[in-house]
Amino acid sequence: MGAGEKKVFTLAQVFQHSSREDCWLLIGGRVTFLPLPALCPFIYFVSPFIRPRHKVKDEGRWWGNRVYDLTKFLEEHPGGSDILLSVTGKDATVDFEDVGHSPGARNMMEQYYVGDIDDSSTPVKRADTPPKPNNQDKTAEFIVKILQFLIPLAILGLAFGIHFYSKST
pTM value? Predict the structure, then answer.
């Protein structure tokens, strides 16, 4: 790839480079919902906290995802290749930031840069919806509220009954 030349890949193209001999990684953005097949264990996603200039588009897709070919660097990684492989297939933001990569290490990533991800190939971010409450809980709450009203009323009625019965005798 020439200087300044930038290529755009789809996620499927990145997945084709998912072995120890041909390892491409996606860094600089996060795809929030992506079912990774078992054949693609060498791809990981790092959130935009690494490169704050990357933003979310209105339709909920992440953009600014940069693709790096780290095949040659896999064995040279100071923590070993197992460290990189252990964070594949998930959002590795916390793992990446916990290490505290130096600015030199971040700059070194540029030599492995091969292109960006085509934004239209990334799945749309899905919002989590809380589970709906069970209707049986409402029935139990209703019974408790009725008992909270009826029991004191019954005790009060019993007290008045005893008071009037004892007065008349």
Answer: 0.49
Residues contacting 17, CB < 8 A, separation 6+ = 23, 24, 69
Tokens of 145: 């509220």
Sheet of strand 113-117, all strands in order from the earlier edge strand to the far edge: 8-9, 113-117, 66-69, 22-27, 18-19
E runs forming strands in the chain: 8-9, 18-19, 22-27, 66-69, 113-117
Bridge partners (DSSP) of residue 122 are none
- pLDDT digit string, tens, across residues 53-91: 434 443 334 434 777 677 787 788 888 877 776 655 444
For residue 69, give both structure tokens: 């070919």
Span 3-14, average pLDDT: 73
The C-alpha angle with vertex 71 and arms to 11 and 6, in degrees rounded to 5, equals 50
SS3 27: strand
> pLDDT at residue 2 above 60?
no
CB contact at 8 A, 49 and 93: yes
For the chain, first and last CA: distance in Å? Answer: 109
